[in-house]
Specification:
The protein is of the alpha+beta class. Helices cover about 65% and strands about 20% of the residues. The protein has 3 helices and 4 strands. The chain has a 4-stranded antiparallel sheet. A hairpin with a 2-residue loop joins strand 1 and strand 2. The protein starts with 6 loop residues before the first helix and ends with a helix.
Length: about 190
């Protein structure tokens, strides 16, 4: 029988298989490393894009916060301007109301009566004057009561003043209120 030695052939085949296995193993390892590198690069790219979006959101938020602050400042300024306008309107109303009240006082003044002092505090007007008689003081009170701008005249004091004339003059002190509906209603 012929003896054939197959060991070298098997050893060569085994060596070939081992080399192919190592090459496949190296190729797969390189492929795995390349895949990991690609995945790492892809994830880094995604992270950088997200960081850019976050930076954009932060900068936009900062700008919006600045605008919101400006809006708040404008609201405060608007409120201040509205308060000033309200004050000016009130002063304008009071100014015309005061002149109308003085006009009404002058129109209510009967002949033989004159004022020596007129003081106004809030709605109360204190009047001091001189009249020829108490009848003239009563006529003054009726005239003041008939005015739409004045109400509730109250006589505080009437006294005779010693004078050089035959008929003594009457000193009087009275108060009258400025009418709410005449002043605030703006009826002229």
């Amino acid at each position: 029988m012929a003896r054939i030695n197959l060991l070298p052939w098997r050893a060569l085949l085994r060596e070939k298989r081992r080399k192919r296995f190592l090459m496949v193993l190296v190729a797969l390892s390189l492929l795995a490393v390349a895949g990991l590198f690609a995945a790492d690069h892809f994830i880094d790219t995604l992270v950088e894009e997200q960081m850019e979006r976050n930076d954009l959101i932060r900068s936009t938020t900062f700008q919006l916060d600045g605008r919101a602050q400006q809006i708040d400042q404008l609201k405060v300024r608007r409120e201040q301007l509205l308060e000033r306008m309200q004050t000016i309107e009130t002063l304008q109303g009071n100014r015309s109301g005061s002149s109308i009240v003085l006009d009404q006082l002058a129109r209510s003044l009967p002949e033989g009566v004159y004022f020596t002092d007129v003081k106004m505090a809030e709605r109360t007007i204190a009047i001091t004057g001189v009249a020829q008689s108490t009848a003239r003081v009563a006529e003054l009170m009726r005239n003041l009561d008939a005015s739409h701008w004045l109400e509730a005249p109250t006589l505080i004091e009437v006294r005779a003043e010693d004078g050089q004339d035959a008929s003594p003059a009457r000193l009087f002190h009275m108060t009258v209120l400025q009418s709410q509906n005449g002043h605030d209603g703006g009826q002229f």
